[in-house]
Every structure is written in C-alpha cells, then in structure tokens.
Amino acid sequence: MSNIEFSNLNKSFGKNKIITDFNLKGKEDEFLVLVGPSGCGKSTLLRMIAGLEKIDEGEIKINNQIINDLHPSKRQTAMVFQSYALYPHMNVYENMSFGLKIEKKSKEEIQNKVLNAAKILKIEELLERRPKELSGGQRQRVAIGRAITRNPKIFLFDEPLSNLDAALRAEMRVEISKLHQQIKTNMIYVTHDQIEAMTLADRIVILNKGNIEQVGTPDEIYRDPDNIFVAQFIGTPKMNILEIEPKNVLSNNILKVLGNEISYKELNFDKKKYFIGIRPENFDLGDNSEYKFSPKIELIENLGNEKIIYMTVDEHQLSAKISSEIEINKSFGFSLKNVFIFDENGKRIRS
Fold first, then answer.
1. Is residue 316 left, alpha or beta, with left meaning phi > 0 and alpha meaning psi from -120 to 50?
2. DSSP β-bridge partners for residue 57
3. What is the torsion angle, in degrees rounded to the nearest 10, for the CA atoms of residue 104, residue 105, residue 107 and residue 111?
4. Which of 108, 204, 275, 311 gets the highest tally of CB atoms within 10 A of its CB?
5. By the 8 A CB rule, do 341 and 274 touch?
C-alpha cells in the first residue's frame, strides 16, 4: 500500500513559474490522472516526483517520508516515458532486467521478476527480440514491464500512449487499467487526452498554468465542474458557453437564454454578465423540450452512431450531439436541469 502527498510545491524555470503552491493528498493505491493543456506543468510535476527535476519550494512525501533530497534510485518510483526509452542494442529481457542489475540483484531474483512481469503483460514470447523488431504497443508493454520489475511504491506514466494509433491506445488503456487492478499500487498518469483521463482515473486533477482547477472523480468532474475551464476541458465536443449580457438579466431570478425566459427561483442575479453552459449531448429535438429555439444549421458531421451538429443562434455558435437514428428538424431544445450557470469570472454558481 502506498500514497503520496504534495505540500506547497513550487517550481520555476528562470522567470517562468511552472508550478504554484501545489497542494494535494493522494489516496491509498489510487490511480491519479493529471490532465491539462500543454505547458500546464503536469510533466514537470511527474519529473519532480521521480527526482529528475529539482523542487524549488515545498515537499513531496511518499508514505509520510519526505523525498525531496533522495536520489532518484532511492525514491521507490518507476517511470514510463512517452518515448519508451528502451536500449536498442539490448533484447527485451535485457531491457527489463537492466535496472535490477544496476541494483545488484541476484540472477535468480532478476529472472523471477522479469518472467513475472512478462507474464502479466503477455510478452513472454518477445523476450529475445530487440526493440526494432517490436510494434509500438509491444515496446510500450516492455517499458511498463521494466517498471514492474522495480516493484515501486509509485508508478509514474508520462503520456505513455501518445505515440500509438487510436485503436492501439484504446487497447493499451484497458491493459493499464487491468494492471492497476492486479498489482494494486499507486499510479500517477499524465495525459492531455481527456478520454484516457475519464476511463483510467480514480481521481482526476485538472491543471491550468501550474494551478489546480479541480480535483474529483471522473463523474464529479463531468457533472459538477467548478468553473468554465473545467467544464470545457472535459467533454467532446466541449461544453457550449453562452455569454449573457446584463440586458438579458430580466430580474433577480430570470435570465433570457436563446430567446427563452428561464426562471431560477432559488438564485438572485444582479445586472452583471453571466455565462450559461449546456453540453452538446444535452440538447434534444422535438416538441417536448422544456425550452426551445430554432437555430441555423451550419454543418453536420456523421460519426456513425452519432451526429455532431454545428449551428448558430443569433450571435451564439453552438454544437449538439445526437443519435444518428434521430431525424434532424428545425427545432432544438434543452431542460433547466442540464443548464450550468457561471459568474462573470467564470466560476460556477450553484443553487
């Protein structure tokens, strides 16, 4: 069993602040996914855990032990890189056993650990091959196997699937999820792919410019976002955000949205700007909608089992996601229960 804790962590490169006052307490043996746009600090955070980047301020603890000044080899972490980082002149067995040889483990222990990892990842028949003879998916399995042989307290994954094609990424997501269930240890996974985040994570950490925007389960992040950044980062296509000008704040509890007067009896508005969020999948068709509007349809993408509809209403550009079996008409609608409200600073207003 293992856990990790970050306290007031800061990291800069020159004048560029990369991580700012990062505080987070991990849970025992959880799968924690760090997600955010490029440059948000997620890979830097992973490298600080591994000891590949120096910590400017703050502390990282693994099982209540401060690891700031520990040599990388003493941190009981193992990292899987995006580039696989395999030695081309070594075969699979040699690659997977290399770290154990450096640690001067016995030949018997090395063999047992390598064969056990190979069995878990179903690569026993590849042990005599060199990296150039392997597919991308096989190379990634070898890189993960090398990490398993170290028997670490914390597994670190730095965008490990980004070099694979879509079908292989989906397959490897399943394998990594199974691996976590099987070996039951803490995993910290960095990605910019929200599908990986939603399908793998016990909890997701949404990062933006070195700051935590929100931490929660995939369901919490999707259904209860704290702000516009989180709301639009998770979900494909991203959440529609409509700017509501002060002139469309009709009273202290009524807003005008897409031509409809929407009443929020439990809220009090003033004459400021607000934002309304509606996910594309929450638009519906037909006459039974709670609120209706008639958009101009600009484009329809047919994805087989669903259609993405791009449309405009007045000055608003919107997208909707519906089943391909549904015939599109001129009337769209939505329900109040699926509407998110954000204040002028983009922070979620909850009733």
1. beta
2. 10
3. -130
4. 204
5. yes
Beta bridge partners of residue 204, listed in sequence order = 33, 216
d(CA 156, CA 97): 18
Q: Predicted confidence band at 317 (pLDDT cuts at 50, 70, 90)?
A: very high
149-179 residue pLDDT tens: 988 899 999 998 888 888 888 888 998 998 8
CA angle 225, 230, 231 (to 5 degrees): 65
Reported as a pLDDT band with limits 50, 70 and 90, residue 120 is: confident
CA distances from 219 to 64, 125, 202, 222 (A): 29, 39, 10, 5
Residue bearing tokens 């064969």? 115
Spell out a b/e string for 30-42, using b for 16 or more CB atoms within 10 Å of the CB, else e: bbbbbbbeeebbb
List the end-to-end C-alpha distance of the chain, in Å, as a whole number. 39
Residue type at 90 in one-letter notation:
M
Looking at this protein, which amino acid is placed at residue 185?
T
How much is the average pLDDT of 246-254?
92
Distance CA 283, CA 262 (A): 16
The residue written with tokens 């306290």 in the block is: 7
User: Residue 257 and residue 276: Cα distance in Å, rounded?
Assistant: 8
Do 42 and 162 contact (CB within 8 A), yes or no?
Answer: no
Q: What is the pTM of this model?
A: 0.91
Residue 26, burial from CB neighbour count under 10 angstroms (0-12, 13-18, 19+)? buried
CA distance 136 to 133: 10
- Measured CA to CA in angstroms, residue 258 lies from 26, 195, 293, 313, 349 at distances of 42, 30, 6, 7, 19
- pLDDT attached to residue 325: 85
